[in-house]
Design a protein that fits this description.
It is a single chain. The protein is of the alpha/beta class and about 230 residues long. It has 2 domains: about 5-185, 3-Layer(aba) Sandwich (Alpha/beta knot), CATH 3.40.1280; about 190-220, no CATH class. It has helices at about 30-35, 40-45, 65-75, 90-95, 110-115, 150-165, 165-185, 195-200, 210-220, and strands at about 25-30, 50-55, 80, 85-90, 100-105, 125-130. Helix 6 (about 150-165) packs antiparallel against helix 7. The longest helix is centred in the last third of the chain and has 19 residues, at about 165-185.
């Protein structure tokens, strides 16, 4: 895990990479690469190298990324991105032939939205979303809502559904739980979601002047899915 020994996460990683048939393509925004506390390296450490491929960038053209283009054009490929056009993953996973590849975008919500809508390749795969009410365990980083999950958590839930193996989620989340525990022991604070802070009158930052961002804040307070 490349961390100091006293906060080493290696004991919490699986002894052997998990055996999965689904290949994950993690599309990572460049800003995530420089963050100290990232979840994608933990995800990669849990899976075989050929089942977790990380591509860093903002724009992905067919000329520069021919392998990715081939994957996106494969009718069995899925892209995990919520929205009105997305199908719940549970409904897709019950099909006789499970998809062999899934694309996940790693970044803030605004970064992920930018990558999804400005790259035509990512509009080709079938769009799916997770229907879950579980709260994020990535408590050392602020999420927009209580049910927004980190990239690692999304991958853990998705793989559990795709592979029909509940132990996958537990195994992949174990190093994340240890990471948060270590950070809290060394002075980090629990980060409640913006939704929680707004509803409880604890949001201490200036409200945005941008009408679109202000509207999103109002939707969070009123429990409207955004």
């Amino acid at each position: 895990c490349s961390r100091p020994q006293k906060v080493c996460l290696c004991p919490f990683l699986p002894i052997h990479p998990l055996k999965v048939s689904t290949c994950l393509y993690v599309i990572q925004h460049p800003a995530e690469e420089s963050r100290v506390l990232r979840t994608v390296p933990l995800l990669a450490a849990c899976l075989p190298p050929d089942k977790c491929k990380i591509l860093v960038g903002r724009r992905f053209s067919e000329d520069r990324y021919p392998e990715l283009a081939t994957v996106c054009r494969n009718p069995s490929t899925l892209i995990l991105y919520p929205g009105a056009e997305a199908t719940n993953l549970e409904e897709v996973a019950v099909m006789p032939s499970n998809p062999l590849a899934m694309i996940i975008i790693d970044g803030t919500w605004s970064q992920a939205k930018d990558i999804f809508y400005k790259n035509p390749l990512f509009r080709l795969p079938k769009q799916v979303q997770l229907k879950t009410n579980i709260s994020s365990q990535y408590v050392i980083r602020t999420q927009p809502t209580n049910t927004c999950l980190s990239t690692l958590e999304c991958a853990a839930v998705a793989l559990t559904i795709m592979e029909k193996n509940k132990s996958i989620q537990e195994t992949i989340l174990r190093p994340l739980q240890a990471l948060c525990s270590f950070q809290l022991q060394h002075g980090a604070q629990i980060h409640h979601s913006k939704e929680h802070l707004l509803k409880n009158g604890l949001y201490d930052k200036p409200m945005p002047k941008n009408k679109r961002k202000l509207r999103r804040m109002e939707l969070l307070v009123n429990n409207v899915k955004i």
